[in-house]
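Data availability (excerpt). The following record was deposited with the supplementary files.
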Amino acid sequence: MADNKEIIPPQYDLNAKWDACLDLSVRRFVYSSLAGAFCGLLFFRSPATRWASVAFGAGVGIGSAYTDCSHLFNGSPAKLAPPKISESPTQNVQDPE
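Predicted structure:
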């Protein structure tokens, strides 16, 4: 029975996606909180502003992790349409005739 193991394609493997998402979220939360704490110690004297910089760093980390996890679960992000180029010549260009 252990030999009949089914192989799940990577795009449908939710366990792997959740593992990657949790790992990414925890890592970004911790690293950005530490960066906020370092910047708070470096730039601010008040404990309230130091904690605010830690909270801001944590928010940035959670936000970026959420964005990447949503792309991981929903597929690649929607691409913007390329700008349309008109085929008519511009008014500043004169014909050589």
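Summary of structural features: The mean pLDDT is 82.
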